[in-house]
Structure formats: C-alpha cells, structure tokens
Amino acid sequence: MSLSLDSTQLDRYSRHIIMDEVGPEGQQKLLDGSALVVGAGGLGAPVIQYLAAAGVGRIGVVDDDVVERSNLQRQVIHADADVGIPKVESAKKFVERLNPDVTVDAHETRLDTDNVEELVADYDVVVDASDNFPTRYMVNDAARIHDVPVAHGAIYKFEGQVTTLTPDGPCYRCLFREAPEPGTVPDCATTGVLGVLPGTVGCIQATEAVKLLLETGDVLEGRLLFYDAMDMTFETVPYRENPDCPVCGESAIDSIEGIEYSGGCTIAD
Ligand SMILES: [Zn+2]
C-alpha cells in the first residue's frame, strides 16, 4: 500500500494516526474506502456525518426525498434553509463543507430491484439507514449476493436495533425470514421518535462501518444489539445462520430477479 497522506491530512486525521489500531495505514484504508448509505434521514444523518469526518473517501447516498421541516428535529445534517431541496443534495453540501477529502455520490432515487444490485456492488460497505421493510430486505439480499457487508440499524420510538451482516455470517433473513405485513408495524410519522435516538443508533452503525473498512475489531456479526433509550439499557442477543435461509443457506438465490419486495418480501421456495 502506498501512503500518500499530505500535511493537511496528517493534521486532520492526527487523532486516528497516533493510534496503533488505525495509524497512517488505517487512515489510508478509510480514504481509499467507500460506503453506500441507504437513506439520508434520521439514521443516515449521523452516519454520513461521522464517515465524512473520518475521511471515508467515497460516500454514496441514496434517497429520493426532499428535506421537510419535520425532519430537522433529528436529521442533523439538514438545516432550516434546506427545506424543500433533495436530501442527497443537502447531504452533499454538508459533507463538502466538512471534509474536502470526501467525494459524495448523490443517488437521488429510490432503491428498487433494477438498481440495487449495481449500487451495492459498487461499494466496500453498505449502511442500511432506511426506514422501511422492502428496502431493508432488498439491501440484505443484494449485499449478500455481491459479498458486501451491511451495517444495519432500525429505530422505533425509544428503541433501536443494530446488527452487522457480513458475507461470512448470518444474514437479515436468518434473523427475520420475512417482513411483517404492511400496516402491522407503524412508522415514525405515525408513532413519533425521540430526536436523539437515531443519533445513537446511527453512530453505532458508523462505528461498525469504520471497523469494517479498517478490518479491525469485532463487529456485530451474528449478534443483534437492542438499545432502550427509556431504560438506558443495551442488550446483545446472538443469532445463527439458518441453513434453510433462501439468501445465504444451502440453496441460496444468486439474483433478486423476480422477488416481490412488498408485503412479506417473501422468497418462494
Ligand atoms: Zn440468511
């Protein structure tokens, strides 16, 4: 690996570089690395913020929404003046101000079966900061097919869940084979969410993504972390590969073609 940190970078990343666990080699890995952040909302905001600050060289942001005033209580990369502009544009503006070392690929689109595989395969790591089941299952399936790790996070009112899906570990369908039927799990818009909650959960996802890029530490592979902000408790529950998993099991799919990502996101046997 050729190290090419200039004096500004040695200064910017000095608190990384002085640690044995990162060092100049680790910082170079981050600068050479790429991450796809799915969603530039509550979870995506802190993820984008910290990955950009850490110097992850290329950050893809996928989102098809525009900034609304009701987002600003938690989506901290967007500002009052951004209301009405696409979230990917606001995210790009935020990162450009923070760190000129980082390139943002703004994907102003919704993930679907036609674009997800190509997008996921173009990055070293995916951070699932989405807010809906079809996207979550689509990301899991496409990332597994293309051997890209996923730092997954989800939030509900005062609670969060984080797990990391590596190409060698169990996948999201090993944990929850199918999505709950639409309408059975309410979303943030109907139930509300504590503004700071996605900050905590997104920061854990960003930590996992950075560790994956550095190839260091133990990620949440085969472990589901539960965070309860009301009780202020963290609990970790282990889970295993399911040999019958339709995505990573013995007779696994090699394409998402034909899968209906609606309802239970079911893969037919
Ligand atoms: Zn699986």
TrEMBL record:
GO terms for cellular component: cytosol. Keywords: ATP-binding, Nucleotide-binding, Transferase. Residues 13-247 form the THIF-type NAD/FAD binding fold domain. Coiled coil: none annotated. Gene3D superfamilies: NAD(P)-binding Rossmann-like Domain. InterPro entries: ThiF/MoeB/HesA, ThiF_NAD_FAD-bd, Ubiquitin-activating_enz. The keyword ATP-binding applies. One of its GO terms (molecular function) is nucleotidyltransferase activity. PANTHER family: ADENYLYLTRANSFERASE AND SULFURTRANSFERASE MOCS3, UBIQUITIN-ACTIVATING ENZYME E1. This is UBA/THIF-type NAD/FAD binding protein.
